Amino acid sequence: MISRVADHCFWFGRYVERAEATARALSATMSLGLDGELPPAQVWRPILVVAGEEDEFRTRVAEDQDDHHAWGDAELVQRFMVWDQDNGVSLARSIGGARWNAQMIREVLSLEAWEAVNELHLWSTSPDTQALYAQQRDAFYHQVRRSTQLTLGLLRSTMLHDEPLDFVWLGVLLERVSQTARMLDVHHHAFANLTERNEIIETAVWLTLLRALSGSEAYMKRSAGRISSEAVARFLISERAFPRSIAYCVRSAYDRLAVIRPPDADALPGGVSLEQLRVLDTWVDARIKDPLVGASVHDLLTHVVDEVHAICGTLGKELLGAG
Amino acid sequence: MFQSQSQGPGPGRLFEKYPALDGTFDEMFEAGAPRPPFARVARLLDAIAKEDLAKAQALAERALLQQGVTFSVYGDARGTEKIFPFCLLPRLIAHADWTRLERGLQQRLRALGMFLDDIYGEQKIVAAGIVPAEMLAGATAYHPMLRGLKPPGGVRIHISGIDLIRDPAGTWRVLEDNLRTPSGVSYVLENRQISKRMFPRVFDAARVHRVDHYPTRLAEALRSVSPTRRTGLGGNSGVINLAGPHEGETNAVVLTPGPFNSAYFEHSFLARTMGLELVQAPDLFVDQDTVFCRTTRGPRRVDVIYRRTDEAFLDPDVFRADSTLGVRGLMRAYAAGNVALANAPGNGVADDKAIYPFVPEMVKFYLGEEALLEQVKTFVCLRDDDRQYVLEHLGEMVVKAVDEAGGYGMLMGPQSTAEQRDEFRRRIIAEPRRYIAQHRVELSSCPTWIGERHRVEPRRVDLRPYILTSRSGSWVLPGGLTRVALVDGSYVVNSSQGGGSKDTWVMKDAAP
Questions:
Q1: Beta-carbon contacts below 8 Å between A and B
Q2: pLDDT per residue over B136-192, tens digit each?
Q3: How many CA atoms lie within 13 A of B179 on its CB side?
Q4: Phi, psi (5° rounding) for residue B142?
Q5: Tally of CB atoms within 10 A around B137
Q6: Contact B294, B99 (CB under 8 A)
Q7: Helix or strand or coil: residue B33?
Q8: What is the C-alpha separation between B401 and B113, in angstroms, rounded?
Q9: What's the pLDDT tens digit per position in B62-110?
Q10: How does pLDDT run across B441-492, given as a tens digit for each residue?
């Protein structure tokens, strides 16, 4: 397929996944804040850190102060993460990005999938939706999640399962690896800094994280109701059967790319990306025996995020026309 | 969605007190009664309650927006999108009318194609004194460098849209030819989807020709002119290879200037419905006079390009050097016979508004037949007598610049101000070759739903049928784009100036 089109497919997948992840994270965090057991800044700041927008928020909203009330202001953080057009990872920008890319590959997507994402875009920009956001915040996030999930489902059920869909899915999976790794890292980090351990609060925070990743039910089935920081980390990193775990996403991304560019097709471009993904997959696999405590978790996740970033760069050069 | 309730005439009926215009041919009614071929359909439509029609109209508009059936508004940096206004009430064309039109259009396309071959060849028609040499010399769309070049497959006008109007006597007349990159066919197909959804019973009763095979026919026409004869999808084996495009098969693509082009929706629509790749200029490159596209598996040969980029922007080596929408070397590859371009570059000379008056003569000259389609009497300002007449009658005439389209560069005499007329007088005297003039034709009208007034009123319409030409001849899509001037009293149907569209129902049967 045309490299430029493949690029739009890839980014379409990333934006749809990012929109869903953002909506889920905000919704779960709001729920955590309502329990009122943590200082507000400790509830909301991680959202900004995970998004990589901490500095941006500090300059533009928190008046360059680290103890500014904005860090714990649920409304300010949400407005920044939902509507802010200057925030590259806001929900509005992700939905807009998904729709823009979809429009560029309108002839590649199925009519149903295109309509789903176009409707999400029209919905997100309508005055009624502003009212819904103001009055029923959770219903708003719910709708975003439903629409993005519908889009991803329709892609699978109405499109040809060949190269364009492989590229969309590659984008979804690589975005998901980063989202999971960053979410886990930020939460883990928060606990490392806690001076006083409080089992109830810790449990609540881990549950929030699992909910934000649509993983609380799956986790409980695996752990029979027990929650520990190490068990949650192991689940999110290594659980092969959980479709948002790092191990699952990296392996699936490798499988997708191996279909696009088979390992033995030496004449075709894409070999370096494929090899990078293979190495990362092997590396993640080997971590299953490592103890997941303290700084080692952060190091592990940082490695994953950096590698995924590098792989996206190579993919761009080798296959997506950026070279 | 409507189950017609067939009560007798009463208040609230759709066509109640339909105010037909004096001196105008109405497409559906004659002297207060439906025209005989449409009686049945008119009765069924009439039974629709106004409230229901208003609801359906709103529903249809929302569906168009949600499906993204939109065009971008030029000069709007934010890329605002609008739906092309659409009136649910169909425009009907009787079987007998259509049969005549079809033959007339095929004849016209044959003659125009031969004219282009001739004009880029021996120029017999100029030698015979039928088209004056100075008309040709003044045609900005004529490219002398293309002379002697034979397009792959021998076809130049693969896709055309011929604008037709109907005068007060009901006579169909050609208003202009569009032989470069005519647009609008996607609306024909989309409008039909909506009609079928909204009026299943009426539609069923009307027995209308289908239009949804257009993309298939277009893909066939494109493949038929491929310079490389290959097997598989492009071949004549009749076997359809469902494994998708592969090396060794004809590779036809649709070339778009990009999403900021007002017709981007259509480019993408056609690529999607034909199953072809939609490419932009940077996706293509030329190596050794052969065109390739950049794919995830390396370069892939391109055989046929349905290009929706204006020819001025096609190749910066040959046409506008500042074009960023072009492919360097494309014309060289075309000249080498390695790629087919649809439509062929250079067609503009045949749809030049100053060449138009000569088309009936062309038909006679090339085919030895009388032209089946009437046209509108046209005054060519380059001719002294014509110019004199035009300058003396500016207030009654429609003056058009020969190289502009979309309703721009026009003087509508009867609605003009003295200043506008002076302006055009000055321009005509300065550049007579650039202007032609016609008497204003009272375009026919069609019952149209006017939402603000919650009633049906007559509005003026034209018709653009689409004709595909492959190696084996021309085919007319039985339907077309009916454009309607939605503004009360307006004659301008262009979407850029308040025009909308209607579904066009060409009836299958001679008798309803």
A1: 66
A2: 887 888 999 999 999 999 999 999 999 999 999 999 999 999 999 999 999 999 999
A3: 28
A4: -85, 125
A5: 11
A6: no
A7: strand
A8: 24
A9: 888 888 887 766 554 455 677 889 999 999 999 999 999 999 999 999 9
A10: 889 999 999 999 999 999 999 999 999 999 999 999 999 999 999 988 888 8
C-alpha distances (whole Å) from B280 to each of A113, A136, A323, B174, B218 are 23, 43, 17, 34, 20
Q: Cβ of B296 and A106 within 8 Å? A: no
Measured distance between the N- and C-terminal CA atoms of chain A, rounded to whole angstroms: 16
- Could you give the CA distance from residue A203 to residue A295 in angstroms, rounded to a whole number? 20
User: Which of B296, B302, B327 is best to mutate for the A interface (most A CBs within 10 A)?
Assistant: B296
Contacts of A114 in chain B (CB under 8 A): 67-68
**Which DSSP state fits B84?**
P
Let me know: does B93 contact B507? Beta carbons within 8 Å.
yes
How many whole angstroms separate alpha carbon B174 and alpha carbon B161?
11
Is beta strand B481-485 parallel, antiparallel or unpaired with respect to B284-287?
A: unpaired
Q: Does B280 touch chain A (CB under 8 A)?
A: yes
What one-character-per-residue DSSP string does B149-179 give? PPPGGG-S-SEEEEEEEE-TT--EEEEEEE-
As a residue count, chain B comes to 512
3-state DSSP assignment of residue B375: strand
The pLDDT tens digits of the residues spanning B394-410 come to: 999 999 988 776 667 78
CB B343 within 8 A of CB B157: yes
Contact A107/B271, CB-based, under 8 Å? Answer: yes
Whether the CB of B298 is below 8 Å from some CB of chain A: the reply is: yes
pLDDT tens track for B461-475: 999 999 999 999 999
CA distance B484 to B87: 9
